Amino acid sequence: MAGVSSKSATKRKIGEENRSYQEKWEDEFCFISGHKEGTAICLICRETVVGIKWYNLFRHHKSKRSSFTEIFPLESNERKNKVANLKLKVVKNIPNFKMMNGGHLQLF
C-alpha cells in the first residue's frame, strides 16, 4: 500500500541527527546554544527553539524579529554590540551558564 510504512521502519530522533549549534548563528539570528542538547535560546525573547537547524532559527528570527535586522544590519558594529549586550543579560539570568574566555558559554 502506498504511503504506509512498515513496522521495521523506525522514527527518526533529533539526537541521532548529529546537529550542533554553529557560532555564526549568534550574530546572524541572535541565538545562543541552549542548556539542553539540541536547543537554542533567542537572545531577544528568550524563547527556546528545539531542533537546531538553520531553517528553524531563520524562521523564528524572520517571523518574530524582522525589525531587528532593519535596525541593526548584519555585519554592523551596532549589531555586534547589541548581540553582546543581549547575551550578557541572558547569561546573568540563566544560573547554569557561565561566560568563558572568548565570550563562549559553557554549561556547568
From TrEMBL:
Residues 1-20 are annotated as: Disordered. It comes from the Eukaryota. This is SPIN-DOC-like zinc-finger domain-containing protein.
